[in-house]
Amino acid sequence: MASSDQPREAQLETVKFTELLNGSGEQKVKLFNACKHHGFFYLDLTGFDPETRLDAVVEDMSALAGELFDLPEEQKMQYDVDKISKMKVCGYKPLGRNTGGIGGKHDGFETFVIPKELPSTGQTLYPLPATIEMHLHTIRQFALSMLTINRAILSSLSEMLELPHGHRLEDLHRPSEASPDIIRFLRYHVQPAHELGAPHTPHTDIGTTTILFARDPGLQVLPAGAKQWEYVMPRANHAIINLGDGMKLLTNGLFQSCLHRVAPMPGQAMQKRHSLVYLLRAEDGTPMTGIGSSLFPARDSNDEVLTSKAWLQKKYQGLRLATYNKQQDDWRVTGRKEGVIE
Prior knowledge:
The protein has eleven helices and twelve strands. The protein has helices at about 15-20, 25-35, 55-70, 75, 80-85, 115-120, 130-135, 135-160, 245-250, 310-320, 325-335, and strands at about 15, 40-45, 90-95, 100, 110-115, 180-190, 210-215, 220, 230, 240-245, 260, 275-280. The strands form two sheets. Strands 1-2-10-7-12-6-5-3 form an eight-stranded mixed sheet. Strands 9-8-11 form a three-stranded antiparallel sheet, with no helix packed on it. The two termini are about 20 Å apart.
């Protein structure tokens, strides 16, 4: 058992990507069980397409993030995500705009997001700083690699669920169709010692899958029924994968969307932390309900079925400090209708 000064580490399943891609039944079972019981797992990327050199691509993306966040604040605010993109798929979010645990109310991080059509087409309707355009090749390599990973995960889960053609998970996430997938850069700011608090509010993710790359610790999960937060420690040559509310809705609750946040290590204030994320979401018009598998639990007939686009808009409302209503939005932010352990 971890002491108060030692991180309590989450015990997550590890799925080997190359074996999953090659059809390993053992890895498919590991993936299915991880999705059903935790909604979080490590993905071992050993042997991932040697020509791509994903580790080098991630390094280059991290360098791009540094360039973006080091731009003058007034320049970054020219790309304010709330002003240029209704669906929050492109632009900059400044420090302190979201709900969070700093001072009991605001977050401690800034973000920059890039829409999926930029790496796929080289064009976007949204304004972007020249820094991003200069790194378009790297962004495209990263996005294509994330699509390869997501395709392997979705097709493997569809097989395990015995989903028919047209209702398979990958049929609802076609790269050619409109969806609010994004690449997100995050920078958590150094926290003064007197200002203890989690810079990221406890939340579940919005979409289907989240692929995370981070060198620094701080990510915590709170599995269903758990009484304490547990740290998900970074591992070399691994991505951390978690499912979002979209996957939980698309499987009628069979798969889990685990509550998580970023917090300081025990006994410390928050240190500077960077992370790189690819967030996969269902196509805009997808009804967010499970269809086609006998394994799906029955859906509560009183629950409203929203489209993917409508669901995302409601969740964003709950995350923004200016529009947050605790009574109405807490369950959308946390994915739970009961209270959350602080």
